[in-house]
Amino acid sequence: KTWVIAANWWMTDYMRIIFQYAETDLSGYPTVAALADPSLAPHQTNGFDGATIRGFGMRAQVDW
């Protein structure tokens, strides 16, 4: 699940600044054993660990 919110600030007709915030929830995905034989290392898995990723971005744009 991902959601994004953004805002544009037009300083003039030719210049703007863009702000963006995004958040992604990585829960609910299956994990699998990291090795072919899970008995060797049963605590190691591949897959998403239910993390939440957050990011902020900003961009300035000029049209000439």
Mean pLDDT: 84
Number of helices: 0
Gross geometry: rod-shaped
Across the major sheet, the strand order is 1-2-5
Query: Could you give the count of β-strands?
Result: 5
* Gap between N and C termini: 38 Å
What structural class should be given to the helix and strand makeup? mainly beta
Rounded to an integer, what's the Rg over CA atoms?
Answer: 20 Å
Query: The biggest beta sheet, please?
Result: 3 strands, antiparallel
Work out the strand percent.
over 45%
Unreliable residue runs: none
Helix content: under 10%
Q: From N to C, what is the helix and strand string? A: EEEEE
What does this structure look like?
The structure is a single chain. The chain has 64 residues and is mainly β. Helices cover 0% and strands 55% of the residues. A three-stranded antiparallel β-sheet has the order 1-2-5, with no helix packed on it. The model has no long low-confidence stretch (mean pLDDT 84).
Descriptors:
55% strand; 64 residues; single chain; 5 strands; two-stranded antiparallel sheet; mainly beta; 3-stranded antiparallel sheet
